[in-house]
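Thread title: Can someone regenerate the structure for this chain?

I was given the following input by a collaborator and told the matching structure tokens would be attached. They weren't. Posting the sequence so someone can regenerate them.
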Amino acid sequence: MLSFFSVYIVYLLIKKQIMKRILSLFSILALTVISVQAQSISKNALGLRVGDNNGFGGEISYQRQLSESGRLELDLGWRNSNHVDAFKLVGLYQWVMPLDGNFNWFVGAGGGLGSYNFDKGGNGTFALVAGDIGIEYNFDIPLLISLDMRPELGFNSKYSNDLDLDIALGIRYQF
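Best answer:
Regenerated them for you:
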């Protein structure tokens, strides 16, 4: 009877060792697949984000990698036309996910602030919260092109809350 328990215990120990090895191999395989599928975000990207932007037009855009699939985007837009001087600074955190090949999609959220001055005496400041969703293509050369949609909800003491839908094309140099 003792020998049966001894054999059974040895069997369980061997089974446990085999299961540990199988689990280890599976983990290594899973991490390898994930690393192959993981998005490679450049450390930095600088360029333009061109769209209507509620009268601000183009923006200078900077992206900074913060994690393997996350980045910070800062956009500075300004306007000096039609009797209006204004600027807007927006910061967004974006999660980047691969689609196929060099195509990626991203989603993000953030906020911003700005200032405006009308020639006829109206001036003020505003704050905004924003979402972001888009698609991008990462060329084999250090060029990134994106198309995104950014809904922005602005807050200002002089006017009612303003909802703006900003659609823009981004062209950035990666370094």
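The CA atoms of residues 61 and 75 lie 4 Å apart.
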